[in-house]
Amino acid sequence: MMETGTTRTAAQILVDALKIHGVDTAFCVPGESYLAVLDALYDARESIRLIVARQDGGAAYMAEPGPRSPAPRICFVTRDPARPTRRSACTPRSRTRRR
Q1: Cα separation of 54 and 39, whole Å?
Q2: Residue closest to 40 by CA, chosen among 4, 12, 14, 6
Q3: Which whole-number Å values give the CA distances from 59 to 7, 35, 41, in the listed order?
Q4: What is the rounded CA–CA span in Å between residue 82 and residue 79?
């Protein structure tokens, strides 16, 4: 984290908050809408590992928590028309089952 008294960007504050909450892995499809966050994640590469995916649906599924990793995982994607793909990856499995 940064020293007190220095100016920080919103992206650096966000990455510091992720560290505080125990995030150790983030998944993304790089996009222009959060370049500052990517820069801040690069500066924090010792504590948060960034994994780049080819498409946002895959990044969302990789970020799904599992039994091997109890730490929270984060998925960063840019704004685009593929929103339904990300939403289905983030919906709890109990809601996606047919009844």
Answers
A1: 19
A2: 12
A3: 32, 17, 16
A4: 8
> What angle separates helix 35-43 from helix 10-20, to the nearest 10 degrees?
50
For residue 95, the cross-strand partners are: none
Q: How does pLDDT run along the chain (99 residues), one tens digit per residue? A: 556 678 899 999 999 999 999 998 999 988 888 899 999 999 999 999 999 998 888 888 888 877 777 778 888 887 765 555 555 555 554 444 444
Beta bridge partners of 74: 26
CA distance 74 to 47: 14
**Predicted structure pTM score:** 0.72
**What does the alpha-carbon distance between residue 49 and residue 27 come to, in Å, rounded to a whole number?**
8
Residues 6+ apart with CB under 8 A from 30: 38, 52, 78
3-state DSSP call for residue 40?
helix
